[in-house]
Amino acid sequence: MPSLAGLFFWMNRKIEDINKIIVTKPLKLDCGKTIKDFPIAYETYGKLNENKDNAILVFHALTGDQFVAGTNPVTKKEGWWVTAVGPKKAIDTNKYFVICANVIGGCMGSWGPSDINKDTNQPYGLDFPVITIKDIVRAQESLLDHLGIKKLLCATGGSMGGMQLLQFCATFPDKTFSAIPIACSSSHSAQNIALNELARQAIMADPVWDNGKYFLQNTQPKNGLAVARMVGHISYLSEQGMQEKFGRKLQEKADYEFSFNADFQVESYLRHQGNSFVERFDANSILYITRAMDYFDLTKQFKGGLVEAFSNQKTKFLVISFSSDWLYTTKENKDIVIALNSSGADVSYSEIITDKGHDSFLVDEPEFLKTLKGFIDSMHEKFKR
Amino acid sequence: MKSEFKVIADLLPNNSKVLDVGCGDGSLMDLLVKDKNIEARGLELDQRNVQKCIVKGLPVIQGDAETELYQFPPQSFDYVILSQTLQAFYKPDKVLKELLRIGKSVIVSIPNFGYWKVRTSLLFFGKMPITKTIPNTWFNTPNLHMCTIKDLFNYCEDQNIEIKKVIGVNENNISLIKKSNLEMKNLFSKLGIFLIG
């Protein structure tokens, strides 16, 4: 593991060229606490046209950030959704104005546990309030006002991004003309809570974590955070995809080493993913964001059930699932479709047949990208009228 | 099958709400939306066809009509259309009941196994018939439960399903089918279109 990873990580926090707004309007969080004057970091791609009918809001997933396309100026790596967003891509930035905000609780400029708590003059750590998906979504609303957008052409997001989107549509039924929830769920399943708990316990079991006060030592619980990331990466692939990609192939060696080094390619892959992740993500952010995901349950929020959540929807939906996704299964996505159907909403649904697992929405999956493009372009034609 | 779509379209009032079960690439829905301002939804099994509908801006749900009609609430559509697929289900009677639950009215079209060319093929040549409306051979046909216009007519009567209109189609000729002319029409129609429920 690179010894300077922690230091590099904290240097990142100081990068100032991130677009931000300060939300002055008080926001009462689900936990009861009210916040105000908090930053929301965001990025935009393409240009808002004169009629303001080409804006697309993207919600990012657990470990994503606002840098959807192009090069991420902080990590210097490609944006997390370059396969789908960019000039002439499925979400064509020559044509559409794409907006993405960093979630609160995150670590790319929006208000999060690594920010300074004015009461103590130290980073919040565990003094940061436990937030929900609803808090995350409501915190972003001011951004649309700031950008002068009354109604979006489309809003989309995969995984936790899809959950934010469902919440967004339920909370603000008139804010978007169309919506594409991808590989998500209307309430987090026991399996997904269990996997998140595994990630959190890995972080908390690392002695460096120190009850979230690792910032005092200018470092972070790299080992625990890396394990947490490995758990995630296993869940993003399918059994078949993993077998095809790695099989029992050995990592640059002819035979077993009879040691606990990474003999297998799959081990080496997970270790690499874990180690590179600690350079760009804050351990406490993982705790807070995974918690928000676990608490997500639209059915509970709307006591009449999911159908109630989507009542009076004018938004046109396209729900997309992937056949080999075992994290957010086709069944869970179909439940969303059924609820939308029952509430009379305009809903389309497609299950993309692929062995790429939950990750399918982030990789080059042609059938998925064609469907995404087809829907957005047809919605734009309707919205323009 | 343009003439079939035209007959179906003529049966539908403007501005109604329609579910097209097995909507294929959305050709019929597209026609209904554009010509009659109908609020159309589709259910389609094939991913490529689903994609084609989406590109056209038509709302479509990917799924299997045999098992997934339960997701639509009772009487949630003015009309439910099932074009030439009833015979391909494992349990066509169950599917038909589901269609009648979802739609205030149901339009079902069937390739007519009572058509004279079909009958003569079996009678004179002793071979399973292959025609324009029944194009597959016995070993690869998706059709599991072929029936005639008379069969479906009798079935609706037995089940107390109201028959509102039956239309026989032979190429571009369309004609009204009643109980009085059922025998003849059953012999000379390639396709039967039933408005029931």
Describe this structure in words.
The complex is a heterodimer of chains A (385) and B (197). Chain A is 36% helix and 16% strand. In chain A, helix 5 crosses helix 7. Chain A has a domain at 9-188 and 298-384: Alpha/Beta hydrolase fold, catalytic domain (Rossmann fold, 3-Layer(aba) Sandwich), CATH 3.40.50.1820. Chain A has helices at 5-13, 133-146, 160-171, 190-204, 222-236, 239-245, 265-277, 283-295, 298-301, 306-309, 330-342, 366-384, and strands at residues 19-23, 27-28, 34-35, 38-45, 55-59, 85-86, 91-92, 97-101, 116-117, 122-123, 152-158, 176-182, 316-322, 346-352. Mean pLDDT of chain A is 94; it is low at 1-11. Chain A is built from twelve helices and 14 strands. In chain A, strands 1-4-8-5-11-12-13-14 form an eight-stranded mixed β-sheet, sandwiched between helices. Chain A has a two-stranded antiparallel ribbon with strand order 2-3. Chain A has 385 residues and is of the alpha/beta class. Chain B has 197 residues and is an alpha/beta fold. Chain B has a single domain (2-114, 144-196), classed as Vaccinia Virus protein VP39 (Rossmann fold, 3-Layer(aba) Sandwich). Chain B contains eight helices and eight strands, in the order H-E-H-E-H-E-H-E-H-E-H-H-E-E-H-E. Chain B has an eight-stranded mixed β-sheet with strand order 3-2-1-4-5-8-6-7, sandwiched between helices. In chain B, helix 5 (92-102) links the parallel strand 4 and strand 5. Chain B is globular, with a radius of gyration of 16 Å. The A-B interface holds A 316, 318, 334, 337-338, 341-342, 344, 346-353, 367, 370-371, 374-375, 377-379, 381-382 and B 41, 47, 50-51, 53-63, 71-73, 76.
